[in-house]
Design a protein that fits this description.
With 188 residues, the chain is of the alpha/beta class. Helices cover 37% and strands 9% of the residues. The protein has seven helices and four strands, in the order H-H-E-H-H-E-H-H-E-H-E. Strands 1-4-2-3 form a four-stranded parallel β-sheet. Helix 2 crosses helix 3 and helix 2 packs across helix 6. The chain is globular and about 60 Å long. It starts with 58 loop residues before the first helix and ends with a strand. 16% of the residues are buried.
């Protein structure tokens, strides 16, 4: 019988059925608890799925939030597209780095903002181990109101939204965030 009470066709039985238990890497049978008693068959007892807390938010708002909620699709896209974009920028432009990254717990970098490529230029000259620890602030009203620019900024730059309409309160908020972040994070 299935959990819903309907008969299960022969050969389609699952773990703990008459066809026998399925062994798992722990060495025991999957249909028994650690004390040898049969495992609970209540729905949700063995597996629990919690949807992302921001699943009801529009895509641009989800991509622009800080701290980010784990999301396998955008994390994989960032891991693939970020290094490709950095390599492309390095191949197209010549950079001269004078000095090295200061040995400080946290750092805020402010490029001269001659174009939207400034942040990508800074990211492209950083070593990959540092690039993963950078948060780029991008204008909410320009990048995070429509899905396509939000996805581009989030995937290529790892950007999060900065509300430039409320400058002082947003600067104070990011000052607190930067102060409260673990050592080794950078803000562009």
């Amino acid at each position: 019988m299935s959990a819903a009470g309907a008969p299960v066709p022969a050969g389609a039985a699952g773990p703990g059925s008459a066809d026998g238990p399925i062994d798992h890497p722990g060495g025991g049978a999957a249909d028994h608890a650690t004390d040898g008693a049969p495992a609970s068959r209540e729905p949700g007892a063995a597996f629990r799925y919690d949807p992302l807390p921001d699943i009801d938010m529009p895509l641009p708002a989800r991509l622009g939030q800080f701290p980010r909620q784990p999301d396998i699709a955008t994390d994989v896209a960032r891991a693939v597209a970020g290094p490709i974009a950095a390599a492309f920028i390095r191949s197209q432009f010549r950079f001269e780095v004078v000095g090295s990254v200061p040995d400080v717990p946290r750092l805020a970098l402010m490029p001269n903002h001659q174009s939207h490529l400034d942040a990508l230029a800074v990211l492209s000259i950083l070593p990959a181990r540092l690039r993963r620890r950078v948060t780029v602030l991008a204008a909410r009203d320009y990048f995070f109101e429509r899905p396509a620019p939000a996805l581009t900024a989030s995937v290529l730059w790892g950007a999060v939204a900065f509300d430039r309409r409320s400058r002082l309160s947003e600067l104070r908020r990011w000052t607190r965030i930067l102060h409260d972040t673990p050592d080794g994070w950078f803000l562009v």
